[in-house]
Amino acid sequence: MILPLKLDWMPWYYTDGESIAVGDRVSLRFAGRQYSAVVAAVSGTPGIDPGRVLPIERVESGLERISGREIELWKFMADYYMCSVGEVFKVAYPLRRIEKEQSALRVRERQQERKFREIQTVQARAERLRARLEKCRASLQSPHKETVTQRLKTTELSLESSLAALQTRLDSLRQEGNSSTGVQLPEEESSRPASRPSNPVAVQDWPQAGKLASAMAEGKTVLAVSAGQSGLMLNQVRGQLENGLSVLVLEAEIVAAGQLQRALAEEFGERVLLYHSSLPDGQRRDVADRLRSSKAHLVVGTRSALLLPFASLGLIVVLNEHDPSYKQDVTPRFHGRDLAAVLARIHGCGLLLCSATPSLESLVNAQSGKYLMLKEPEPFVLPPAEIIDTAAEKRKNGMVGNFSRRLIAMMARTLERGGNVLLLRTWGDVHFLRDEVVPLFPEQSASCLGDEDFTPDARIIMGTMSQSKSLPLSRISLVAVMLCDNLFARADFRADERALQILRQLQLRRSEGTGFVSRAGDSCGLGTDGVGAGGGNIVIQTSRSSHPVYRMLSGGGGAYSYDEVVKLLLQERRALNLPPYSRIVDVLIRDSSSSRLHLMASRLALTLREVCGGSPGGGMPSAVTGGGLPSAAGSGSGVGSPVSESDLRFGGVITEPFNTAPWEADLLRIRIVLPKGKGISAAKSAILSAIAAFEKRNSYTSHIHFDVDPV
Question: Which of 332, 475, 569, 660 has the smallest CB count inside 10 Å?
Answer without folding.
Answer: 475
